[in-house]
UniProtKB/TrEMBL annotation:
<dbReference type="InterPro" id="IPR003741">
    <property type="entry name" value="LUD_dom"/>
</dbReference>
<feature type="domain" description="LUD">
    <location>
        <begin position="49"/>
        <end position="212"/>
    </location>
</feature>
<dbReference type="InterPro" id="IPR024185">
    <property type="entry name" value="FTHF_cligase-like_sf"/>
</dbReference>
<dbReference type="Pfam" id="PF02589">
    <property type="entry name" value="LUD_dom"/>
</dbReference>
<dbReference type="InterPro" id="IPR037171">
    <property type="entry name" value="NagB/RpiA_transferase-like"/>
</dbReference>
<protein>
    <recommendedName>
        <fullName>LUD domain-containing protein</fullName>
    </recommendedName>
</protein>
Length: 215
């Protein structure tokens, strides 16, 4: 008898005298969770998102649709980025003012090759105001997960108000659980036992979020 079979046999013996429970799964546990904490306008939700992102040490910028190309160009120039990963579905005009080499998101790209790229610019699937979280789902305008984890600088564009929701439950309703979801709350960071914070350990050291309105 394998270890697995031994453990399962013990579980069955322990449950032998337990009464049968025919309660349907969806009624077994009360799940009357709050869908959001307080009522906010779309503008207030965007403000809360910006506040929480900044609290996580993300750099937050706000602009209109018309201002976006120039803003992205400025952010990459200030970073000194000479190369930028571009997902295949990223709107072409977003980077129309950028003076940097475009690196396509290829399945054949190695981690070493991506590590030599200065920045990556993506869109997102949804953003959560209450938690300051941006969610990527690998869509055409976001690219493969690794292109947002290896380069040291990630600029993500959030369309306001349509991509901003108040809470995690509202975000989950918009997402496909079968897709590769990446939940980002600030730049990658960790702390050792002395609580010394180190950024860039398992993702970008610098996260910049652009809240763009006027779509």
């Amino acid at each position: 008898m394998s270890s697995r079979e031994l453990i399962l046999a013990r579980v069955r013996r322990a449950l032998a005298d337990a009464p049968a429970d025919d309660t349907p799964y969806e009624r077994a546990v009360e799940r009357g969770y709050l869908r959001e904490h307080g009522r906010r306008t779309a503008e207030e939700s965007a403000d809360l998102l910006a506040e929480n992102l900044a609290d996580y040490r993300a750099l937050v910028h706000r602009c209109t649709r018309e201002e976006l190309p120039d803003l992205l160009a400025r952010l990459l120039a200030e970073r000194g980025s000479r190369s930028v990963v571009v997902p295949p579905g990223l709107p072409a005009d977003w980077l129309s003012a950028v003076d940097a080499t475009r690196v396509p998101d290829l399945a054949t790209s190695t981690a070493a090759e991506l590590d030599r790229v200065d920045s990556v610019v993506t869109a997102c699937a949804v953003a959560v105001a209450e938690t300051g979280t941006v969610v990527l789902d690998g869509g055409p305008d976001q690219g493969r997960r690794r292109v947002t984890l290896v380069p040291d600088h990630h600029v993500v564009v959030v369309r306001v108000p349509e991509q901003v929701v108040a809470s995690v439950p509202q975000a989950l309703e918009r997402l496909d659980p079968a897709r590769p979801l990446t939940w980002i709350s600030g730049p990658s960071a960790t702390s050792d036992i002395e609580l010394d914070r180190v950024e860039g350990v398992h993702g970008p050291r610098t996260l910049e979020v652009v809240l763009v309105s006027g779509h």
